[in-house]
Amino acid sequence: MSLATATTLFEEADRDERAGRLDDALSRYERGIAILLDLIKVTPNPVTLRKHAEHFLSRAEAVKGRKKQRPRQVPVSRGESFPAPTRSKSKPSMPAKSPASSIAKRPAARPRGNGTPARSTQSSSGDDLRALIESEIIDTAPSVSVHDIIGLEQIKRALYEAIILPRLTPAMFTGLRAPPKAILLFGPPGNGKTLIAKAVAAEGKATFFSVSASTLTSKYVGQGEKLVRTLFEVAHEKQPSIVFIDEVDSILSSRGGSSEHEASRRLKTEFLVRFDGVSSNPNDQLLIIAATNLPGELDEAVLRRFARKFYIPQPEPAARRNLITSLLTRHNHRHTMTEAELTELVRLTEGFSGSDLTELCKEAAMWPIREMGDQITRSRASVPAITFQHFQRSLQAIKPSTSKESLEEFERWNQAHGSSIVGLDGVGASSQCVIS
């Protein structure tokens, strides 16, 4: 049994509960909970699973309470609301309400005085999803600027041309010059794809929505499809908006496999429908930016919807040099490296990602502390400067996280599918439109 099976059972139980089929709902809740309990036993960090189990145990207890209080079970037709039963005064002794409860809990609609049902429980659920999106997914003011991105000058120029400039001068970017509605950032991990998306949102003064595969498929069990629908509805309302999808390959991988679950297919279909909706209205100021470390896993239908596919490679030598010196300066760490030693360090870090270089600098910064031994004091000024030898030792502990074979695969995929940006660094260099 898998988490996907439990998700399906909980979705079906929810539909049964809202339709008044309480026996079926209780049976499915219990089967889904049993799967979660089995998964908890074999999961290294089962905190999220345990919260889900607690939540759905509460749901199952609530169904039992409804069965006891209701004289008979009267299923209602699809689209109608089921009147709320009288609540029992005794409450089940359950753990504290889990974070998922505000999404998955659906109180039954109460009838109005004239006998007509109140607004549907689905509407109430939508309000809960909106509240969660506004509290957990929206970042209205990303504290990142393009100046925090070291290197990638051609990429920054291309994104400025595709995103920022059309927002500054919309009259010039119509017809064939209309900006793309969906952009894919791909490449090895640790090179700033998320940082780039946040910087673009900050430059364009856009509301930034950040969602990942784990958010849709784990944190909100059984709610992924509805969460996607509500996410795009809220993004339309808060234009200009940027919807950033991290780990997009985990959500929108190739369809049709025999092991693919129905819930996964529905989630992909919902995403594709929303992609098409964004592209169909040229006046919408809504942009989708997706990031992936596995572009080859994406479904072809998804790839067609990304008008631009930008490769975010490992840092070039100049960028590695700037990143190392910037990290040391930003954190007020003294060093004694000469220009020749710094050049040699740049050569030795060929193939390192941005995050690899950050870890290397952290390791090098620890060596002066280790050498002080028992002489460590509270005074920062007493810590010796970082030397080239410290970096040489650190290179024994910190290695490139991406293999040469993987980098070659990224290059091949970029040649076949990526958007060319050759020459953009020299275009309009004398103007004030450059982004960096």
Account of the 3D structure:
The protein is α/β, with parallel strands linked by helices and 436 residues long. It folds into three domains: 3-67, Phosphotransferase system, lactose/cellobiose-type IIA subunit (Methane Monooxygenase Hydroxylase, Chain G, domain 1, Up-down Bundle); 140-311, Rossmann fold (3-Layer(aba) Sandwich), CATH 3.40.50.300; 317-401, Helicase, Ruva Protein, domain 3. 51% of the residues lie in helices and 7% in strands. The protein has 17 helices and six strands. The chain has helices at residues 3-19, 22-42, 47-69, 101-104, 121-137, 153-168, 193-203, 213-219, 224-237, 248-251, 262-280, 300-305, 317-330, 339-348, 354-372, 388-394, 404-417, and strands at residues 138-139, 182-186, 207-212, 241-246, 286-292, 308-311. A six-stranded mixed sheet has the order 1-3-4-5-2-6, sandwiched between helices. Helix 13 packs across helix 15. Residues 73-121 and 426-436 have low confidence and may be disordered.
Tell me the fraction of residues in β-strands, as a range: 5-15%
Strand count: 6
Please estimate the helix content: 40-55%
- Main sheet: strands, sense, barrel: 6 strands, mixed
How big is the Rg?
27 Å
Which geometry do the CA atoms define? globular
Summing up helix and strand content along with how strands pair, one would put the structural category as alpha/beta
The fold-level CATH name of the largest domain is Rossmann fold
CATH architecture of the largest domain: 3-Layer(aba) Sandwich
Low-pLDDT segments? 73-121, 426-436
CATH homologous superfamily assignment of the largest domain: P-loop containing nucleotide triphosphate hydrolases
Q: Could you state the order of secondary-structure elements as H and E?
A: HHHHHEHEHEHHEHHEHEHHHHH
Mean of residue pLDDT values: 78
Individual helix count = 17
User: What is the number of independent domains?
Assistant: 3
End-to-end separation in angstroms reads: 51 Å
Assigned CATH class of the largest domain:
Alpha Beta
Cross-sheet strand order for the largest sheet? 1-3-4-5-2-6
GO molecular function, one term: ATP hydrolysis activity
InterPro entries: AAA+_ATPase, AAA_lid_3, ATPase_AAA_core, ATPase_AAA_CS, MIT_dom_sf, MT-severing_AAA_ATPase, P-loop_NTPase
Catalytic activity: n ATP + n H2O + a microtubule = n ADP + n phosphate + (n+1) alpha/beta tubulin heterodimers
Biased composition (Low complexity): 91-112
